[in-house]
Amino acid sequence: MDLRVAAYGIVTDDEGRVLLARWIEGRRVAWTLPGGGLEEGEDPETAVRRELREETGFRIETTGLLGIHSRVIPASRRVRRDERKVPLHTLRIVYRAEVTGGELRFERNGSTDMAAWFTLDEAAALQRVKLVDIGLRMAGLLPE
């Protein structure tokens, strides 16, 4: 079994909108929480700051650990065909974070191609990965 540890951020603005990134490497294009995999030896908080900067252009600071979500993806459901030999265990560390600087911009040549702010109602209408709702529940922004 492969293991992937990743860190993601729930970032909201003064209007209560949530920051999402559009993931383009999955089975379908879908909105997700900004964040991603830890590099070897990287601290999760460092990873979420790096990933948010890469995917959205914003500098952030974490304000709290919301939780860890664990999921095992069967080999047959893995995204990349060359990785479909063994299951993937994903550990997704979700932080609450706030913007401290930077400007909204889109990632180039990455796993996402754009980022945007959405109200919770707008986010609910998007094609999105399950992690969005999981993270919003962790943050108390969606009912359990």
Automatic annotation (TrEMBL):
Domain Nudix hydrolase per the UniProt entry, residue ranges: 2-142
Cofactor: Mg(2+)
Gene3D superfamilies linked: Nucleoside Triphosphate Pyrophosphohydrolase
Alphabetical UniProt keywords: Hydrolase
Keyword Hydrolase included in the entry's annotation: yes
InterPro entries assigned to the protein according to its UniProt record, in alphabetical order: Nudix_hydrolase, NUDIX_hydrolase-like_dom_sf, NUDIX_hydrolase_CS, NUDIX_hydrolase_dom
One Pfam family of this chain: NUDIX
Family: Belongs to the Nudix hydrolase family.
Protein name, entry field: NUDIX domain-containing protein
Provenance organism: Microbacterium commune
Organism placement in taxonomy: Bacteria, Bacillati, Actinomycetota, Actinomycetes, Micrococcales
